[in-house]
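Dear H.,

Thanks for agreeing to be a second pair of eyes. The structure we're designing against is below in C-alpha cell form, covering all 232 positions.
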C-alpha cells in the first residue's frame, strides 16, 4: 500500500486566541458544514477565508477541489491551491501536494518531488508524512529500498498517533514474529482511523490465519461499515 488519504479537516485551530479572528471563524464554519455534509456551504466559507490569504483556507479549497466537495473534482486546481498554501507555510498542504505527486493526479507523477514534500512536512512533525516516507523506503521509491529505514519511519509515525503508521509498524512486528506486540499497535490504530482505513486493515488481516488477527480483522470491517459515508 502506497496510498494514504489526505486530511480534510480544519482541526488545527486549537491554538485560536480567546477572541478568534474573522478568518478563524470562517474556517470553523466551513468545517462545520463539511461535518454536516453540506459541502457547497463549506466551500463558500473557505473561499471567504482565503480572500485574506490564509494558508489553511487555501489548503481546504484544495481539499474541496480534490474531493469534489461543492465543486467538480479537479486535482489540477487542487494542486494550485495546495501550492499556495504550502508556500505560506501550511504543513498539511505539503502533505496533500506530495500525495498528488505520489499518485500523479493533477500534477506529473514524480516520486522525487513527492518524497521531498513528505520530508519537508515530516521535519515539521507531520506524522502522516513519516508514514509515507516509510512506504517510500520500503518500496524503493525515490530512495533505495531499505526495510530497516522503513521500519524506523513506521515506528515514528505510530508513536505520533497516525493510524497508518500504527498499521505498518504492526506489519513489521508480525514479519518478525512479534504478533502480541503487533496487537497493541492495531488496537491503537482504532483510535485514529476512518472508514477506508478500517476496511483496508480488515481486508489485510482477514486471511492471515491467526485467530487473534482474525478478531482484529472482523472488528475493523464492522467499524468500516459503521463509519461508511463519513468525510475523512
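And this is the sequence the design step returned. I haven't edited it by hand at all.
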Amino acid at each position: 500500500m502506497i496510498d494514504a488519504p489526505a486530511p480534510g479537516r480544519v482541526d488545527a485551530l486549537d491554538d485560536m486566541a480567546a477572541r478568534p479572528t474573522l478568518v478563524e471563524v470562517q474556517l470553523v464554519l466551513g468545517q462545520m458544514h463539511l461535518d454536516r455534509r453540506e459541502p457547497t456551504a463549506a466551500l463558500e466559507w473557505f473561499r471567504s477565508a482565503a480572500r485574506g490569504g490564509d494558508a489553511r483556507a487555501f489548503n481546504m479549497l484544495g481539499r474541496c477541489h480534490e474531493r469534489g466537495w461543492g465543486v467538480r473534482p479537479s486535482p489540477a486546481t487542487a494542486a494550485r491551491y495546495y501550492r499556495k498554501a504550502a508556500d505560506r507555510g501550511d504543513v498539511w498542504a505539503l502533505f496533500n501536494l506530495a500525495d498528488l505527486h505520489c499518485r500523479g493526479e493533477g500534477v506529473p507523477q514524480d516520486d522525487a518531488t513527492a518524497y521531498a514534500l513528505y520530508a519537508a512536512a515530516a521535519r515539521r512533525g507531520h506524522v502522516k508524512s513519516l508514514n509515507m516516507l516509510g512506504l517510500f523506503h520500503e518500496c524503493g521509491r525515490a530512495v533505495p529500498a531499505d526495510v530497516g529505514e522503513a521500519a524506523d519511519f513506521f515506528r515514528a509515525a505510530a508513536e505520533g498517533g497516525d493510524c497508518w503508521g500504527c498499521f505498518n509498524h504492526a506489519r513489521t512486528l508480525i514479519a518478525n514474529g512479534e504478533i502480541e506486540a503487533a496487537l497493541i499497535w492495531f488496537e491503537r490504530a482504532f483510535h485514529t482511523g476512518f472508514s477506508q482505513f478500517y476496511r483496508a486493515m480488515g481486508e489485510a488481516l482477514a486471511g492471515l490465519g491467526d485467530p487473534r488477527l482474525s478478531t482484529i480483522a472482523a472488528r475493523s470491517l464492522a467499524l468500516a461499515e459503521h463509519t461508511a459515508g463519513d468525510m475523512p
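Two observations from my side: Confidence is low (pLDDT under 50) at residues 1-6, 12-16. Residues 20-124 form a domain with the Serine Threonine Protein Phosphatase 5, Tetratricopeptide repeat fold (CATH 1.25.40.10).

Warmly,
E.
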